[in-house]
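chain below, 128 aa
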Amino acid sequence: MHIVSFITFFTLALILCALLLIISYFLGERPTNLNTSSSKNIPFESGVNPIKQEKLQFFAKFYLLAMSFVIFDIESIYIYTWATIIREANWIGFIEAIIFIVNLLVSLLYLIKKDVLNWKSLSNKKQT
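prediction:
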């Protein structure tokens, strides 16, 4: 009986996906000629045309810092949810939370060792 409901669900999901693709194909705008205007190929942001084409290069440290922030932010959510059930978790839950926090501290020490959080070295590289 479960296989019939799974096949029905899977079939309806495929039909829905196909239906949405077909509808978007008919409702979407099709370009007549891509080479008619070069202004259609430039980025347009906040209603301001760009003055000149400029490619900005960002240091990889910004990416590493952003990813580290997201990871630690999500892990802090787990700590808050653990704090709401601390009384029901008993000692086993407390030990698991301590292991989790130690894991966070080890990963933070790793980031410090890899100089992800050191911005002085980045400013020194810019000046030279």
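The CA atoms of residues 82 and 88 lie 10 Å apart. The longest helix spans residues 86-113.
thats it, cya
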